[in-house]
Amino acid sequence: MKSEQTSKRAASVDTAATVDQATIVSGAKRLADAAASGVTRTPVRDLIGPDDIASAYLMQEGFNARRYAGSTVVGRKIVATSKAVQDQLGVDQPDFGVLYAEMEYHEDDVIALDVLLQPKVEAEVAFMLSGSTR
What we know:
Number of strands: 2
CATH architecture: Alpha-Beta Complex
Oligomer: single chain
């Protein structure tokens, strides 16, 4: 399932992707392999430049297509929205992502730690909308 929103985001960044399609595919595969095996891999930052946002979003899109093929999109997220968090992470803009059904947990759900690569806890605010924002 190709994420139209991610494609729009990749296309709307200030610069075009600086790496070829084979590199994008290689990075997406590396991420998918890590997720499937539960074993961390070398970060994909060695494949793209630190400011190549377009390539990063294309890699994310490729990972999502591999990992969540046929899955239901249950939401979207925007992270690093505050200047303080952006400064902490060394970025200068928010990051956008897609939330799939497999990622959704409810208040009383038990989360098996063995399915997580590097478990951490992070407080986030979520809004449930009654309809599409389009």
